[in-house]
Amino acid sequence: MEETLPYLEQQHCIFHGVALIASIDPQALTPELRQMRDNMIKAMDLNALMINRGLK
Which branch of life, at top level (predicted)? Predict the structure, then answer.
């Protein structure tokens, strides 16, 4: 079984994904890409909460 990434590394990966999607013209985003972007932003928020609570 693969080991999970530490929260800070997860944040970096998620932020990179969000930045890639954000670089696409908003008019060209498919509903699937919008959903991925929204889910990644939610995951980033949850990871930030975990980091702030010391659950690294």
Answer: Bacteria
Query: Do residues 7 and 56 touch, judged by C-beta distance below 8 A?
Result: yes
Write the burial class of residue 54 (CB in 10 Å: 0-12 exposed, 13-18 middle, 19+ buried).
exposed
What residue spans define the domains of the chain? 7-53
Confidence (pTM): 0.64
In tens digits, the chain (56 residues) has pLDDT values of 577 778 778 878 888 888 888 888 888 889 998 898 888 888 888 878 877 777 65
- Decide if 13 contacts 28 (C-beta within 8 A): no
